[in-house]
Amino acid sequence: MVLTEPDKIDDFERALIKLLDEKKTPWIIVINKTDLYSEEKVCDTRENIEKEFSTKSQICSLFRQTDIEQIKNAII
Fold first, then answer.
1. Which of 27, 38, 62, 74 could bridge to 43 as Cys pair (CB 3.0-4.6 Å)?
2. How many CB atoms lie within 10 A of CB 33?
3. Is residue 66 one of the residues assigned to a domain?
4. Number of domains comprising the chain
5. How far apart are CA 70 and CA 51, in angstroms?
6. Number of H helices and number of E strands within the chain?
């Protein structure tokens, strides 16, 4: 499930935060730079995410390109 609709971003963000908070796991952010390459950044708090990514729109863009199943598999 890859979310591409802007109105779905907040739901995706809430689901991701809930999933990570339930697992008490560092935040795992997957940045898809191309179809063949992705970079992972691990952020242990929401504040660190905000420092790593300068704006919420950048975070939303990142979330839009990310598959929630890939994140789930990475932290389980």
1. 27
2. 9
3. yes
4. 1
5. 23
6. 4, 2
* CA gap 42, 75 in Å, rounded: 11
Amino acid at 60: C
Whether residue 1 is contained in a domain is answered as: no
Structure token pair of residue 71: 């994140």
Domain presence at residue 45: yes
How far is the CA of 28 from the CAs of 7, 31, in angstroms? Answer: 22, 10
- The per-residue pLDDT for range 23-56, each reduced to its tens digit, is 665 555 555 444 444 455 555 566 666 666 655 5
* Count of CB atoms situated within 10 Å of the CB of 39: 9
**Among all chains, which residue has been given the structure tokens 């179809």?**
35
**Residue 24: Cβ-neighbour burial (10 angstroms; 0-12, 13-18, 19+):** exposed
pLDDT higher than threshold 50 for residue 1: no
